[in-house]
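Give me C-alpha cells for this 513-residue protein.
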Amino acid sequence: MQNDYVIEMLGIRKEFPGIVANDDITLQLRRGEIHALLGENGAGKSTLMSVLFGLYQPEQGVIKKNGEVVEINSPNDATALNIGMVHQHFKLVDVFTVLDNIILGAEDTKMGFLQKKDARAKVQAISEKYKLQVDLDAKIEDISVGMQQRTEILKMLYRDNEILIFDEPTAVLTPQEIDELMETMRGFAREGKSILFITHKLNEIMAVADRVTVLRKGKYIGTVNTKDTTKQELSNMMVGRPVQLQVQKEEAKPGETVLQIEGLTVPSRISKKDAVKDVSFTVRAGEIVCIAGIDGNGQTELVYGISGLEKASKGTVTLCGQDISKCNIRRRSEAGMSHIPEDRHKHGLVLDDSLENNIVLQRFREKRFQNHGFIKKAAVREYAESIIGQYDVRSGQGAVTTARSMSGGNQQKAIIGRELDRENPLLIAVQPTRGLDVGAIEYVHSQLVAQRDAGKAILLVSLELDEVMNLSDRILVMYEGEIVGQLDPKTTTIQELGLYMAGAKRQKGGEEA
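Here you go.
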C-alpha cells in the first residue's frame, strides 16, 4: 500500500503569532495524479505547500515520500527530493534574463566557469517538449506575467522535479493562457509526474483535477473524487454555507457622465509603439462599464493613464466636469477617484507597514485621522477594525499585522474595503476578484452592484469572462491599444466577445466591420 502515495503529509500543524494556519491536516498525493487543494483565502493552502517545500517547519506531523519519512528543512531539501514549486507571487530576479533565472541556484560549472551553452540547450529542449516557448534572453521585467509563469515552470522542470506544486497558478493568466496551462498539467500527469494544484476556481478543478482536498479555516474538511462531486457541493464544503454563484442585479439606471476620456494616448514602456491609441469613452453614474480584452492589449496602460500612474502623451481625462489630465495621483484621488490596482504589491500596499496604516493610506490627512500633523492612532485603529470586520480580512494579529505576512486574497480584501469605503463618485476596479475565493467573490460582486445602485460610476477591468458578462452594463473590448467594440452583455455571447478580443471582429462607428 505504501507506494500508492508518492507524498503523504500526516497530522501537519503550523502556527504563526495569533493564528493556527494548519490544524492537524492530512494530504495524500498519488503518483501521476492532479490533486487540487481548495479553500478560502487564508484557509492554510499556501502554508501547507510551503511546509512541503521546506519554507516552513511544522510544529507537529510528518511528511513521507514513497512511504518513507523525510525531513524537509529548506527548499534545497525539497529539490533534492524532486519537489518543485511555482509560487503565487513569482520568485524571479527582475533584472536577470529568463535563462539566468531558470538556472539560478542549479548552475552547471566547469573549473569555476558557467556552462551556459549546455543549460540553454537543455532549457530549449524542455520548452519545445512542453510547448512552453519563451524568449530566453529577455529580461524578466520586460515580459508578461504569463511568460514569467512559464519561466517558473521551466525552472522547476530544469531541476528534473517529479512532484510539482502550483500555488494559484491561474490567478494572473488570461483565459487562453489558462487553457494552455491546463493542457501542460495534463501532459505532466500522463508522464507520471504528480501535481498539487492550489486554487479556489471551481471551473478549473472540475476541468483538470482527479481529486480535491478541501481546507476551511486551517482545518481538513475532506477529500473527494472530482467526477463524484459538483461545483455547488465543493463551494459549500469550502465556505461552509450555500454560495450564490450568479450575480443578482437590477437593470442599470445611468445618470450624469462622471468620467470622460477623449483621445487618450499612452506610450508603451517596453516598445516604441503607443500602448493606448486615441481611446475615447464615458462612464456614467449608476453603471458598470467593463474593459475586456486579452492581457497585454493596453488595458493596464489605459488605467495608468487615467489614474496618473503613467503620463499620457495626448488626450484628456475629465472627472465630474473637472479636467484632471495634468494632475498628480494624489490630486486625482482627491478629485473623487478610487482605484483598486492591478498589482496589489506594487501599487496597492506598503507591504512592510501595518494593515491599519494601509487602510488609511489615502485618508490620513483627513481631520478624523490627524490633528496638526499628528496621527490619531485610536481613530485609525477603530476605522481599520471596522473595515477588517466588514470585509472579513483575516490576519494573525488584526489591525497591527504586517501587510506582507497576509495571504494574497486577504491583502486584496483589505484594498477593496479601503477603496469602496471612500465614497468617491468614480471607482476604477482592475481585476478586483483576482485571488479571491467564491465566498469573497460573491461579497465583492454584491458590493460593486450596491455601489452602482447608489449612483457610483464603476470602470471595471477584468480578464475573467464570467465576471465581465455577469457584472457589466456595457462592455468595451480593447485590442492592440484600441477599443474595437462596444457590446451589451444581455445580447452578446462569450463566443462573440472572444472574437472581438482576438481581433477577428471590430466595430466602426457602432457598425460591425
